[in-house]
Each structure stands twice: as structure tokens, then as C-alpha cells.
Predict the structure.
Amino acid sequence: MTILTAASLWVWPLFALLLVVGLQSRRARTLPMAVVFLLPAIGLVTLPTLVALPHAAAALAVHGLGYAAGAAAGYRLQVRWVLAKGDGRVRLAGENLTLAGMMTLFSAKFAHGAMVAMAPAAVSGITYVAAFAAVTGVAAGLFGGRALRTIMAPATA
């Protein structure tokens, strides 16, 4: 319970916002293409954390590999979810991947913050660093794959 009450106050509105956006993504929607292209920036949120880790070079390398794997998976999956594109907008089918990706990134960052506060020695090991970097890289990469699929999708009338 201490973990939940010791979290910064801004964490809970952010969680609520991500949850609402993720739940809305379960329904078909039309978005400005700028939103699709900005979502991969979510992955940048973890970069300062990765750089601050003891094995920063390894963390960045694993994160990069995870991002590439996530982007490849996201690109393949998005083929069935990008329904139409044109006039600066994209029509997307409802899917659960956005919710899963957002919650994975939030949870990983939240768990990392808790680990730093409660067991700082645990975050210094290469296994922890690699696992954190891989999870956040794959989750962030999924959004990069969506952006790439949207770019590559032909414009529809």
C-alpha cells in the first residue's frame, strides 16, 4: 500500500488519462495523422531513465533492439487496423494493442520508480537493466510500427 500512497500526485491523473485513451482505442476511430506520428515519442519518456541506469550503454542497446522488434511486430499487426488514410487523417479499427502498450510503459516506469525507492541495489544489476530496457523498448516500438504502417498505407478516397 505504501507504494501507491508514496507515488507523486501527478501519477494518478496520468494513469487515468492513459487508461481512457487506451480504452477508447478499443473502438474504431478517426484521428489526425499527427497523433499517430507523435505516439512513438512515448518511447522517448524512458530514455532519461535508461541513461541514468548503471549499465547505460547496454540499456540503450537493448532498448534499441526491443524497439526494432516492437516496431516490426506493430507494423505487421497494423495492416488489419489501418482502415483508411487521407486528408491528414487516418481511420483505425478498434484494437487492444494501444491500451496494452500504454499500460506496459506506465507500469514499467512505475515499477522502476518503486524499485529505486525500495531496493536501489536491485536496479543496478545487468539483468534488471536489460529486462527494463527490453520491455520498454518493445512496448514503445509498437507505436513506431503503427506510424510506419500508416506512412506506407496507400491513401484511400
In short: The longest helix spans residues 126-152. Strands lie at 29-32, 82-86, 89-92. The longest strand covers residues 82-86. The chain has one domain: 2-152.
